[in-house]
Structure formats: C-alpha cells, structure tokens
Model the fold of this input.
Amino acid sequence: MEFLILVIDLLPLILLAGAVILMVSFLRAWNASQRSRQAQAEEQRRRHGGQTVLEWNGPKAQGAADPEFGELMVEIPKKSGSTGALFYQRGLVLNGRRTSYENLKDVVYHPGVPGRAWTLKQRVRNSAVLWLYRKKGFTIGIRDFSYRFDDATMQAIQDGLGFKHT
Done:
C-alpha cells in the first residue's frame, strides 16, 4: 500500500521527466538534421567558389538574364495574374522583391497533404509550400494554391540550392 502511494506521489515527476527527455531528444534530432543540411549547402558553395547558386539540370525557363542574379533557371507562374517566382542562377525575384541565395540559411519543401479541405485553415495546413528561410528578415513561402508548381520542381529547387532532404 505504501508503495502505491509513493508511486502516485512520484507520478507527476516521472511524467515531467519523460516529457523533458522526449523534448530534448526531439530537439537534438532536429538540430542534427539542420546541421546536415547546412553542411550539404556549404559543400555546394565550395563547388562554386564560395557562392550559392542554383544547380539546375532540368529545362531552363525562357526569359532574359538578370544583371545581378544571372541566367533565368526556373519560373514558377502564379495561378492568376502577373509574373510568378523567378529563380535565377544566384537569386530569386518574387513579387518584385529580390533575394540573393547568399541571404538564405535554409530551404525546406513540404509536399502537402492531398485531399479535400473544408476550411481555409485546413487548406493552408494541407497545401504544398517551399519555405525559404532568410538569415535576416521574414521567411518566404511559395504555396501551391497561389502558384502553379509540382513536387518534382520544388524538390529540385531545394536540392539545387544544396539543402537536400536527408
């Protein structure tokens, strides 16, 4: 009986310790994955003389080269209206905003969840998105409900910038 009372008294501490251990292991795994992705990006930079460029093996987009960013590699058109996302050799132009790949600390493609979404919240949560994490400033997200893209193209952009998913 005394043992049962002792276990009940210690149960919150045991659960708290388990939660802390689980959280620490999750953070360590996430940090290891990010370090691996950063190492791959650094290796890609070394191959190009310390400069971050988009390595693109697919068909190149038709368009004029940019004086600052170089040759146009990929264009992701908007579903409605104006010019979409323009991925050049050394930078990105999105909605008139220019971002050099040198300013990116991570690029992550989330393919999304297929199926019907009944609410706007579900639609946003289930949508495919290419996240471009900048060193300073806001994160850029290119979502499939605003742009026409496919999984292979987005994965190739992520891999082409050196941030390969492992």
In short: The CA atoms of residues 12 and 143 lie 42 Å apart.
